[in-house]
Amino acid sequence: MTVTGLREAKKQETRQLISDQATRLFMAKGFEQTTIAEIAEAARVAKKTVTNYFPRKEDLAFDHQDQFVASLARTVVAREPGESALAALRRDFLGAVERQDPVAGFAGPEFSRMIAESPTLSVCLRGLHDQREEALAATLAEATGAAPGDITPRAAASVLGGVHRVLFARIQELTLAGRGNPEIAAVVGPEAEQAFALLEPSLGDYARA
Questions:
Q1: Is 38 exposed, middle or buried (0-12, 13-18, 19+ CB in 10 A)?
Q2: Per residue in 80-115, pLDDT tens?
Q3: Cβ atoms of 104 and 117 closer than 8 Å
């Protein structure tokens, strides 16, 4: 491995260590009650190192937020020939349920409780959902060649993103009720099919590749 590669690997290792220690403390003490100084001490780095890697405290809890925000748009871009945006998103979500993907909401009871009990993280999560819909709207506009100012991509993204919000919240709800991931997947899979089917009449052919 080159010197540059080693340096980058070390940065990623440090970033992951800080994130892991922060999440452990957040789940044990609560997000609002945990300080940056405590995280730095647990990770054995300087406070400045923590803020260099994670400018906002919320970033420490949602360290996969970029992946989350880009997920719906990325799925539409990668849709198969002849596949609509709705079909691609339904297929991808059902795959995520089968995998019990944390990005889809299968984050476990401790993490889910941490978010639910923190006003700051609950607001941040809503903001991430908003950003995800905005990214999806931009991708749908490009995919359909929509004219500037056309409301259709934004409306479609809001509806498609809304289903994902509901399903994400459903997974959290079942998690906090004490259900295990396999049981949650067995419940949410059919519910997702039902939810996406509601959109078929209006969006079944929209943004077909």
A1: middle
A2: 999 999 999 999 999 999 999 999 999 999 999 999
A3: no
